[in-house]
Amino acid sequence: MAKKLFNTKIGLALGGGAAKGVAHIGVLKALEDAQVDINYIAGTSVGAMIAALYAFNVNIETIGDLARRLTMSKVTSFKLNKTGFFSTESLKDLMLEYVGDVNIEDAVIPLSIVATDINSGEEIILTTGSVADAVCASAAIPGIYIPVEINGRTLVDGGLVQNVPIEALQAAGAGVTIASHLNSVSHYSDISHVLDVMRNAFEIAVSQHTQDQLKEADLLISMDLSDFSLRDNTERYDELFDIGHRAATIQLAKLVWYKKTNLLLYVGRLIRELAPFKLPEFIRRVVSKPRQ
Predict the structure, then answer these.
(1) CB atoms within 10 A of CB 269
(2) Within 13 Å, how many C-alpha atoms sit on residue 243's CB side?
(3) Looking at CB atoms within 10 Å, which of 114, 122, 268, 282 has the fewest?
(4) Contacts of 19 (CB under 8 A, 6+ apart)
(5) What are the CA-CA distances from residue 112 to residues 103, 191, 215 (Å)?
(6) Is 226 a residue whose pLDDT tops 90?
(7) Active site residues
(8) How many CB atoms lie within 10 A of CB 191?
(9) What percent of the chain has a predicted confidence (pLDDT) above 90?
């Protein structure tokens, strides 16, 4: 119990959000600027792609070069099928180009990628096997993309179960979790295409449980990106990057405070768990006070 309470290893969860995922790159740069060491990283959908690149030591400038090419048409191949309209083969090719044919378990930073078993509804946390296949599965929006078969399971977008994969970080062993969330408001991107309608519908469907799950984060980096496209932000890369960098920089001030005081907080939690008597009310209030 004490080992868990005193765990200060930091995990970073990168959420889904299609072409808005450029903002995650700004978050990563802010973390590097603040010299925050990431011990675990997890991602869903576009967050899975960026998490995978970063976990394999692809530098931020190179990830940015890829993101400048990141449009729906670049990562989508039309392939009419009974289970979807598009395949993720182009996305797979992109991942193979940037990280090669590598396995998740070989990542420099321990990596978790979240997908959903469309037959059972189970959350599947992928920690072994092909990185490219896992990223494709995590990004396969049901009804739009053909599901990806991995280990006998039929997998689709992880956002259905864990759009910002904090739970995956906790399962991996992180004691302090940072969440980068690309949709902090209840207003969604303007629509100009049927794919926008379908993607917005997907985001609306997952928004409620995402809000509940975000309460588990020790530090939440949340952004209003409703003014940006889900399909193509290549002309607005710098704007998205700056929003992510600024949001993370502001929130990281809280992490510095957290790291300096976490010992006191964990001691308090340990006392609360182990004490054979009822704590005095004023101590209970201090120990139970929620983190901001």
Answers:
(1) 17
(2) 22
(3) 282
(4) 46, 70, 71, 72, 228, 229, 230, 231, 232, 233
(5) 11, 32, 20
(6) no
(7) 45, 157
(8) 14
(9) 58
The C-alpha angle with vertex 81 and arms to 80 and 83, in degrees rounded to 5, equals 130
Q: How far is the first Cα of the chain from the last one, in angstroms, to the nearest whole number?
A: 24
C-alpha distances out from residue 248 to 29, 36, 139, 145, 182, Å: 9, 11, 24, 32, 12
Give the whole-angstrom CA distance, residue 8 versus residue 72: 38
Token duo for residue 14: 């990168």
Lowest mean pLDDT among 2-16, 64-78, 191-205, 257-271: 257-271
CB 218 within 8 A of CB 180: no
In the chain, count H helices and then E strands: 11, 10
- State pLDDT tens for residues 80-124: 677 778 889 999 999 999 999 999 999 999 999 999 999 999 999
- 150 vs 194, which has greater pLDDT? 150
Placement of tokens 């060491």 in the chain = 37
Residues contacting residue 257 through CB under 8 Å, at least 6 positions apart: none
